[in-house]
């Protein structure tokens, strides 16, 4: 309840995200009365007054706390924590745009987006920055405000509103200025116009929509376009990272940038009046005459034409050329952009070498595979032949075994029959030897 009373908080609407509207210098939340209701059907809408403005609790104002925009940013961060639901989008007018950015810095990630209306991170001009005022302008404005706040309000409010066709708006802003307690307004004006929040915006990645008026005496359009100025067009042309050449239709050079001149070792003055094709090798001149010059006439452009350009010392520099034929008030000209191909040629050579190595390896692989197949065929043939020989050997052994067993059986039977009758010792010994030999022969045949 303390924050609600301190900042005169009003909450309306329902939705998955919260819009917090924050007014600018000399105003209060009533400035949003025509706008905020349109969002209440889709968002939770939070309106509040900066401490010291509108219906805020003036007893909560502290000159030390609000001696910088940081005090107001602290208030906004507290309001977000207490009244916001879901993602938070701040809608800040004028100085409140920077208050929203500072609150974002205090609680990174809590604010999902900013809508900044007429913002200015710094109102004072510097060497490379347009803020809209000189330091002397701001000091004079603050001095006038200190001496006669009500008079200043009556004079400045209509001018700040910038709507001469709607004087009622100027009257409303004047009344709003005059309702603000003068001492608080004076300090807030000093804090606002002397603040410099440019560093606070550096690296702020929260999505931001900037809305500017084309006729804002407080925040000129240049403030929102805080980009470094581009170099002079001549500097861009001269120092471009490619060669730039402009010729007449017959090839006469009328402009050449420093990059191209450096590449071929000649000055622009030495090139002016020369035909571009005179800088090419004989093959390049023929190609120019038969191919890309006719293409320029027929289709108005050429792309990625590879040319050999002669350096001043007669060595060859390979370049890629893109060109267009363009009509100007002074006539028709060919605008050429050229790029050296040293790195590209090196890359292409490396690719070709790699391709050759790959092809060689592939050939060696194919040769090895062919040799492997031949060896496998030879092994398969040798295996079949060995199998045939083994089969034949088995058959021969079977035949031999059968043919040997029959006479051995007869010999063994005869020996056994003769051994049954009485024989002289010598014959008995011989028959024993015969029996042993037949037994040994049978065992040998069985082992085959």
From TrEMBL:
<keyword id="KW-0716">Sensory transduction</keyword>
<dbReference type="InterPro" id="IPR036097">
    <property type="entry name" value="HisK_dim/P_sf"/>
</dbReference>
<comment type="similarity">
    <text>Belongs to the AB hydrolase superfamily.</text>
</comment>
<keyword id="KW-0175">Coiled coil</keyword>
<keyword id="KW-0157">Chromophore</keyword>
<feature type="coiled-coil region">
    <location>
        <begin position="344"/>
        <end position="385"/>
    </location>
</feature>
<dbReference type="Pfam" id="PF12697">
    <property type="entry name" value="Abhydrolase_6"/>
</dbReference>
<dbReference type="GO" id="GO:0000155">
    <property type="term" value="F:phosphorelay sensor kinase activity"/>
</dbReference>
<dbReference type="InterPro" id="IPR003661">
    <property type="entry name" value="HisK_dim/P_dom"/>
</dbReference>
<dbReference type="GO" id="GO:0009881">
    <property type="term" value="F:photoreceptor activity"/>
</dbReference>
<dbReference type="GO" id="GO:0016787">
    <property type="term" value="F:hydrolase activity"/>
</dbReference>
<dbReference type="InterPro" id="IPR000014">
    <property type="entry name" value="PAS"/>
</dbReference>
<feature type="domain" description="Signal transduction histidine kinase dimerisation/phosphoacceptor">
    <location>
        <begin position="392"/>
        <end position="448"/>
    </location>
</feature>
<keyword id="KW-0600">Photoreceptor protein</keyword>
<dbReference type="InterPro" id="IPR000073">
    <property type="entry name" value="AB_hydrolase_1"/>
</dbReference>
<dbReference type="InterPro" id="IPR035965">
    <property type="entry name" value="PAS-like_dom_sf"/>
</dbReference>
<keyword id="KW-0675">Receptor</keyword>
<feature type="domain" description="PAS">
    <location>
        <begin position="231"/>
        <end position="297"/>
    </location>
</feature>
<dbReference type="Pfam" id="PF00512">
    <property type="entry name" value="HisKA"/>
</dbReference>
<protein>
    <submittedName>
        <fullName>Uncharacterized protein</fullName>
    </submittedName>
</protein>
<dbReference type="InterPro" id="IPR029058">
    <property type="entry name" value="AB_hydrolase_fold"/>
</dbReference>
